[in-house]
């Protein structure tokens, strides 16, 4: 009675939870509630039938068995649909198939135990109550489902396992009750009548706990768990092996004891086989579906990994892949590297959003102007690349078109943007591998930039040669001072036409044991670029001052000029460095001339002027070197703090000379004509009123001793007799005085 009461309470609990729920959850709880109610009713009916000592016990037993079967089938349906046990019908089907393997094996073992010759229940075996097979089969199935849920369901699995155990117990206890009534066996009836309602209560409690909110969809995608289990081998073989082993063992045992197989036994055995085959079929389908999905995902990610997110073009990796494929195919193609000229300004002046919009537009224009099969890529920043299936001359045509297309204005909401592009081309045929090809295209691009941008250049083996030489020179130059490979030459600056030396320009020389003589035109720009010019310049300054101090000590009336590169002038503390050198070698500042190239003055006027003024204030004289070779105008001369104008040899032609010399003298500057190589030239220069000159005619750059020898042998007889006019000579003497005294004049 008590247990029936417990069962009623359990049923009531399930009914109330079914009421409180909606949708799928309500349906599940309804299955459970109806199943539980039916189980309790069957229990009560069984107890009543047993007590009423009816003659139709077999018929009643069979009816009860059907009742138990109906109730436990409903409970099983509830169990399978409880939240968390099987997220999809497909998964429920797989559980059922797995459970069927276990159930059929359990059923077979049960059959061996109950049938002859083992006949565990002896005379009590309910041989006449065939319908009992139904709840027993359902019980076995419920047991199988419990095992599967316990192994596979999403944690926490406890409540599900309890519910499964409850359903199994209802089915088996119900079978015991019905069988007990059928066979009029009190013990079975008692056990069944107590166990069934208790199991109902267990189900009710477990169902309440199992009723959790549905998981977010990304946690449990349909089929995923199965696929993964199938692939990773987590679908333990144990679930199939244990039942099979149990079956085989009991079959052998049955045969050994002299038993034979009737229909029920054979059915159970075949069922296991079919269930396994079915399960295998689903497992295979899962594996295939999972492999398909993996392939799709892999393709998707590969696509992502090879795409530039901003422009949608290929990225560097995408280009490399295409290049490697290309290399493998061995066909001819040309690689174009593109770099937007001055794109940094767009970012700086208009902001990165506008910059991004321009890059997107560049990507679109590139895409619109490619032929099918060509690959366009963004390598990062404002660098793009195109892999073009074409011969070099066709690619050049395409590059010209791209220059035009990408050079068109970029209309943005904030205003129009004008850009140009530089392009470097390298043919696959010129490179043995992809790395070299990339380098060649890069070199060609660099060359296009160096040659003034907004143009394209096709890679040339000469670039390679230049680059290699540059790298070697850079490397070797670093230790040149320490290895004593540098030395100075002094080129006389002379009075004209007497060619009496009044000063000397210091010119740096480098002799490398393997590379031979390397000219300053080659290594000075290199030293400037790689930051070595400061060290070199300082060495030259000290050497020159040292030499100058010795000549002065020997009583020679001479000055020395030193070339200064713009980088040096810009360096903080340069003025101090010069003062320090003068102090160290005890050289009067006005004997030192610093030559600054006209180009340097033209680029950063303000900064340069400050430095030059400071140097002049220290007493040093400044010469503007190579005047006329660059961009500065005659008008600018007025504002420059300089003492000497050195006219580039390209300007040493009569009409020009006359204007410059006159202007220079008017501004109180000395004027030196550079590069005088012939007598006629000197005569012309002298005629324009310029009496200081420098050039191969009056003296090559020579070692200090040679220049010194010339100073010592200074006599009018040593002069090249270009002019015998005594008035000229007098003016030359005046010029020399002017050079030497200009500082004092300035101070005054
Ligand atoms: P620069 O300062 O204009 O030097 C004059 C250059 O003209 C020297 O070339 C000299 O050898 C050359 N030259 C002299 N007479 C004639 C002539 O009659 N005809 C022709 N065509 N050329 C003549 P060099 O020695 O090769 O020097 C080249 C440049 O390298 C120099 O031009 C100067 O700008 C730079 N340089 C040389 N030494 C140094 C240095 O110590 N420091 C820095 N910063 N630059 C230096
Ligand atoms: Mg010079
Ligand atoms: Mg010069």
Describe this structure in words.
- This protein starts with a helix and ends with a helix.
- It is of the alpha/beta class.
- It is built from 27 helices and 16 strands.
- The strands form three sheets. The protein has an eight-stranded mixed β-barrel, surrounded by six helices.
- The protein binds ligand C2E and magnesium ion (2 copies).
Q: Layout of helices and strands, plus pairs?
A:
Layout: H1 2-20, H2 23-51, H3 57-81, H4 89-114, H5 133-152, H6 158-183, H7 186-210, H8 224-232, H9 238-256, H10 263-305, H11 316-329, E1 334-341, H12 343-350, H13 352-368, E2 375-380, E3 383-388, H14 392-406, E4 410-412, E5 415-417, E6 420-427, H15 434-450, E7 456-458, H16 461-477, E8 486-495, E9 501-512, E10 516-518, H17 520-529, H18 533-553, E11 559-564, H19 566-570, H20 574-584, E12 592-597, H21 598-603, H22 605-617, E13 621-627, H23 634-637, E14 644-647, H24 654-666, E15 670-673, H25 679-687, E16 692-693, H26 704-712, H27 726-747
Parallel strand pairs: 6-7, 9-11, 11-12, 12-13, 13-14, 14-15, 15-16
Antiparallel strand pairs: 1-3, 1-6, 2-3, 4-5, 8-9, 8-16, 9-10
Helix pairs in contact: 1-2, 1-7, 2-3, 2-6, 2-7, 3-5, 3-6, 4-5, 4-9, 4-10, 5-6, 6-7, 8-10, 12-13, 18-20
One magnesium ion (MG) is lined by residues 505, 563, 595, 625.
Query: So how many helices?
Result: 27
**Beta-strand percentage range:** 5-15%
Low-confidence stretches: 217-227, 715-748
Report the mean per-residue pLDDT as an integer. 85
- Work out the helicity level: 55-70%
Class from helix and strand fractions: alpha/beta
User: Which ions, cofactors or small ligands are bound in this entry?
Assistant: ligand C2E, magnesium ion
As a whole number of angstroms, the C-alpha radius of gyration is 52 Å
Q: Order of strands across the biggest sheet?
A: 8-9-11-12-13-14-15-16
The span between the termini is 132 Å
Largest sheet, if any? Answer: 8 strands, mixed, barrel
| Tally of strands | 16
Shape: rod-shaped
